Amino acid sequence: MIRTPLRPLARILEARARGDNPDAIERENLAARHEAMYDRDRGRAESRLFVLGLCFFAAFSTISIRMGVLAGTAPAEPTVSAAGVEIATQRAEILDRQGRILATNLETSALYAQPPMIVDPARAATELARIFPDLNAAALMEDFTGKRKFLWVRKVLSPEQQQAVHDIGEPGLLFGAREMRLYPNGALAAHVLGGASFGREGVSAAEVIGTAGIEKMFDDRLRDPARAAEPLQLSIDLTIQATMEQVLDTGMKLMNAKGAAGVLMDVHTGEVVAIASLPDFDPNERPAPPTKGNPSDSPLFNRAVQGVYELGSTFKIFTVAQAMELGLVNPETIINTSSPMQWGKHRIRDFKNYGPTLSVEKVIVKSSNVGTARIAQQIGAERQQSFLRSIGMMEATPLEIVEAKGGKPLLPPRWPEITTMTVSYGHGISTSPLHLAAGYAMIANGGTVVAPTLLRHPAAQQGARILSPETAAAARQMLRHVVTEGTASLGEVAGYEVAGKTGTADKPKETGGGYHKDKVIATFATMFPVSNPQYVLIVTLDEPVNTTGPEPRRTAGWTAVPVAAEMIRRVAPLLGLKPQIEPGRLSDITLTSN
Amino acid sequence: MKTVLYVLLAVCVVSLGFWAYHENYKTQDAMAEAEAVQTRIGDARARLAVLRAEWAYLNRPDRLRDLAEINFDALALLPLQPEQFGRVDEIPYPPVQTQLPLIDPATSEAITVEEGSL
Fold first, then answer.
1. Of A489, A433, A480, A6, which Cα lies nearest the Cα of A248?
2. Domains of chain A
3. In this predicted model, what pLDDT tens digit does every residue of A534-576 receive, in sequence order?
4. Which residue of B has its CA nearest to A566?
5. CA-to-CA distance for B46 and B39, rounded, in angstroms?
6. pLDDT (tens digit per residue) in A208-225
7. Is residue B34 less than 8 Å (CB to CB) from chain A?
8. Which residue of A lies nearest to B55 if distances are taken between CA atoms?
9. Of A438, A587, A594, B97, which has the fewest beta carbons less than 10 angstroms from its beta carbon?
10. Which residues of B touch A84 (CB under 8 A)?
11. Domain boundaries in chain B?
12. d(CA A428, CA A271)
């Protein structure tokens, strides 16, 4: 824009020539310029006001239209939606591998009282005490006539009890809706399921929260309203679990044991088909944790997962398998087994003297501590540790129950050569029966690691390879010979080609310092059928004594093995395994001619 | 002319209003019905859950085992044993049924093969 000069020279000269005051020209021009500026500013302010007004108009009209709409519609809650009543049950069910119910919900009622509304407190108190024998009429009377405005009487009621309370006809006794967790099979798989209890409680509803086991592990997933209709399916089979618990219970009583544990695991998928620990409890009425005494004696204690024990000779097969994998020995290698073996101030001895030498296979079959210790010396501490770590013996099992974290193996603080030797036959290292099951599953499936799982998982796990298939097959053959000609002869079950290894370990004294003479943990770790292993079974008995003979026998061969054999006889048909005729050994060379 | 137009418009407005209210009431009825159905579904689900729980409770292995023992005389139920597995060839072959020569499968098969090869 070209600015008009305030004193244009031409007009000034003209004015001067006329004798006018040239300042008048300047003032005139100044006034014109101010006029223009005023007009411009005014226009700008007007347009700003207009936009602002438009904004206000839009805002107020939005509010007024919304108010009009709200005023014009009938008050109604948005009830009609497809997913409205979907959530009839809050917590997802837990099913077994075939879809049978392990845990479900039941609608029930809680009983509460509002004392100011009670008409006849004396009658209400006596009637309630009659319906619920554990309630005290005098204490109720005190509550009903005191200052309290509200009190819970019962957390859950059965329908019969609810009807009986209804029949009292007392307006001050009221019911609140409740959903309770029900385990219809009672104590079955109690340690897996754990239990549930009420969390925050209101009058009309209460939270159900898992307190142990898989209920606590998957609490968030089970409580997730979006997945309430989707049940959690476990790898446990109800029938097989029941059979295992029954056989284990009978075996525990026959062998005078104070506790027992069993694990049945699929060797390819890692699914735990049955896992039991006795004594057990009813998760519907989960007992309170013990406040005194040894916690491992409580029924809440899961021996199969939390109980870490020195599992004894069952570990020998790991030592031998590793030595074979490293090429240090083969099944026919001769090992010096003269007992006792002196090592520094320690002395390793066998159950009885097996002569000066044994082949590696016989070391396993006869369960020679000395022979295994000598093989372990060849392996060395570092390789032994890395092998045990790779099959998961150094950390807690990844099983999906909260207690699994408590089953951390007890390892020697240092690992000198004598430790290498004792660990090779399962002493000085404490693991849970579930650890052992995972280790044996590795041998059974041809040498790849499997992690035990409680969730339905039909596909085989692709774990890291630890042993070559040939080594695993040779190890299985040795385990088969333990049953056919070794310490586990009572474990033979016609048609199922049982292979396994016994283990008898003295229990360490609770006070520390040495071992009990007459208290053992007897374990039988087994797989079947050995020509194509499908399942691994671990049976552990705590302090068993077989008193059928003239003198008490405590070795696993006389205690855990017969129990495991009976369990295989009962469980294998349920697993759908047909008894097979064992393939005979092929003759070496067949000459034919035509 | 104008009067007729006004009257027509008035009739139109009244009938539209009537139709709109009618639709409104129908919608409200449908909603109420849907709500009732939802409630019934909810009740049915709750009942189903109770029945499932009861079914599972009645079928618990402990109880079935006890029942099998109590009724052993009548049912003679025992746990599944390995010996109970059979082989297919242990089952006697079903007796051959004599058929008329026309629908005998052997001959009719031969005929179809012949037809196919032609």
1. A433
2. 94-233 (3.90.1310.10), 239-574 (3.40.710.10)
3. 999 999 999 999 888 888 888 889 999 999 999 999 999 999 8
4. B81
5. 10
6. 889 999 999 999 999 888
7. yes
8. A184
9. A594
10. 38
11. 18-70
12. 29
